[in-house]
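REQUEST FORM: STRUCTURE PREDICTION
Request ID: SP-0412
Submitted by: Lab K.M.
Chain count: 1
Length (residues): 339
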Amino acid sequence: MNVIKKVTMLVVLGLYLFSFLTAKGLVLRDLAKPDVLKVYNDTILISEPKTGKIFVFNALNAEIISTIGALGIGPSEFASIQNFQMSENQVIVMSPNKVSFFHSNGKLIKEIRHTLSEFGVGSLKIKNKWFGSEGEQIGKDIFVGLYLYDSNFLNRKEIYKSQIWSSSRSTIMAVEKCTRGDAFKERLIIANTEKGFYFSIFSPEGKLIRTIEIKNYPKTEVSGEWKEYIIKRLKSTPIIADNWDMIKNRIDYPEYFPAFINYAVSEGGLILVRTYVEKEGKSLYLLLNEKGKILKNIYLPNSIEWWNGQLHFGLNDKYCFYISENDDGDFELHRIPLK
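STATUS: Completed
RESULT:
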């Protein structure tokens, strides 16, 4: 390789890293529509349901390490991506009827079958157990429960249960509460905005270790502008749009939003919470430690819609990473220091 080629490569690499390490961001040219971003120490995972792929990035320089999966039902393929994680240096992908294990370089290790319901396929591995959710109908009412399963997805222990539909209620809730679970330090963390700004942390055996609660957290009012946005998003769903005249008068708009929209947790136990508070086109995120102390307020661009619980941000113990959409319609990966 001659000197000119070497210099050219170094310049290109330098511009590439400069874009990622500064506010400009790195354009994700290989992703048409990213869905969920997760960070595990020095590794970033980004899913793209449209193609059935998981993209594995190096968090230090944003280089693509590998691309995992494709749409399908064969080996290394997913009918749909229900959840994914990195555990013990393996990328684990949950999809209908099976869970797939990969090396970070994209090589398939093994696949095992499961018989969980559609609700339960979003499970996470915690040591030798699995955590997930399942729907259950009791009489005419519908509940969703969060459970710990054994290594074979058979025996389960209930951690939390919430009623999501009542036969006595004829309305449709316009804003969903956050009751999602995640894992860190071989522990399970569950958000429960039914109780306010509230988290519970459990051991792999399902024993409650502690709760996190920010009491009297300020409420965000559901304004007329928010209602217009909610209506727009509801009508973007074909089945709702086709039956809008019948549905529109049954939508229940709460007076206030839940305490927060979603959250991410680092391997070291830092929790980044996205709230409904907005300021000058940015959303307020709260950085907490695992005991619930607020360490920092962070404002990030809200160009990525929060609808349907999509998680476009994540963190390790040094940086926050997030995806935004630029004026050209391209998606960019950014990182900012937490200290």
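NOTES: The chain has four helices and 26 strands.
Reviewed by: T.R.
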